[in-house]
């Protein structure tokens, strides 16, 4: 007969290893974001670090506030994309984690 606690511990260890692997993959992923129809482009990684920022030359003669707004819009686009990717990568990790019969958690 299998030990339910040992089985639970093995599942927890496997889930922890999968989580670490998913976090490493996410950190290495590069996400492209933009605003102003591509006038502002940036690349960030899964740790939300900006790796690259490109500003179209035509914006350098525009109003400073327009440039600031476009940069903020591009950053927000990138952050949303990272959050979505993180959710997708990490959502399936707990699947298959089975609790022993009768064990109830408070959440």
Automatic annotation (TrEMBL):
Annotated compartments: Cytoplasm, Nucleoid
Record keyword Coiled coil present: yes
InterPro entries in the record: YbaB-like_sf, YbaB/EbfC
Pfam families assigned: YbaB_DNA_bd
Lineage: superkingdom: Bacteria
Entry keyword set: Coiled coil, Cytoplasm, DNA-binding
Family indicated by similarity: Belongs to the YbaB/EbfC family.
Function, as annotated: Binds to DNA and alters its conformation. May be involved in regulation of gene expression, nucleoid organization and DNA protection.
Subunit-level organization: Homodimer.
Name by which UniProt lists this protein: Nucleoid-associated protein F6R98_14015
Annotated organism of origin: Candidatus Methylospira mobilis
């Amino acid at each position: 007969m299998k030990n339910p606690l040992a089985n639970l511990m093995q599942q927890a260890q496997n889930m922890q290893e999968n989580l670490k692997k998913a976090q490493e993959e996410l950190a290495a992923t590069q996400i492209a974001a933009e605003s102003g129809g591509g006038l502002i482009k940036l690349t960030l990684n899964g740790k939300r670090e900006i790796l690259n920022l490109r500003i179209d030359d035509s914006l350098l003669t525009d109003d400073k506030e327009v440039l600031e707004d476009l940069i903020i819009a591009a950053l927000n686009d990138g952050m949303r994309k990272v959050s979505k990717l993180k959710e997708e990568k990490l959502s399936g990790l707990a699947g298959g984690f089975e609790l022993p019969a009768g064990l109830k958690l408070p959440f």
